[in-house]
């Protein structure tokens, strides 16, 4: 099972990790394809979001078309 070509490197790494772990326990089915893809994509999104929050803080007033301000909390 191959990761979709639209995936970035992080999502591909998660996809391959999930596939390999499921293969190890003989639990990989073709019907799992969309679940695995969704999980890998979402894990990559979460990792990216966490990195952005760690770098910039939490976004306040993140309304499209308005200037964003960041809350630097500890």
Describe the structure in brief.
The protein is mainly alpha-helical. Helices cover 54% and strands 8% of the residues.
Keywords:
74 residues, mainly alpha, 2 helices, 54% helix, elongated
Describe the 3D structure.
- This protein has 74 residues and is mainly α.
- It is 54% helix and 8% strand.
- It has two helices and two strands; from the N terminus they run H-H-E-E.
- A two-stranded antiparallel sheet has the order 1-2.
Task: Reconstruct the topology from this structure.
Layout: H1 9-24, H2 33-56, E1 58-60, E2 69-71
Helix pairs in contact: 1-2
Overall pLDDT, averaged? 86
- As a percent range, the share of strand residues is 5-15%
- Counted beta strands: 2
**Category from helices, strands and their pairing:** mainly alpha
State the helix count: 2
What is the succession of H and E elements? HHEE
Give the uncertain stretches in residue-range form.
none
Report helical residue fraction: 40-55%
- Radius of gyration from CA coordinates: 17 Å
Specify the biggest β-sheet.
Answer: 2 strands, antiparallel
**How would the global form be characterised?**
elongated
- The first-to-last residue Cα distance is 42 Å
Strand order of the largest sheet: 1-2
């Amino acid at each position: 099972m191959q990761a979709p070509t639209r995936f970035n490197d992080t999502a591909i790494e998660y996809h391959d990790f999930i596939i390999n772990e499921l293969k190890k326990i003989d639990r990989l089915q073709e019907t799992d394809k969309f679940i695995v893809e969704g999980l890998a994509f979402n894990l990559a999104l979460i990792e990216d979001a966490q990195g952005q929050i760690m770098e910039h803080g939490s976004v306040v007033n993140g309304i499209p078309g308005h200037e964003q301000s960041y809350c630097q909390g500890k």
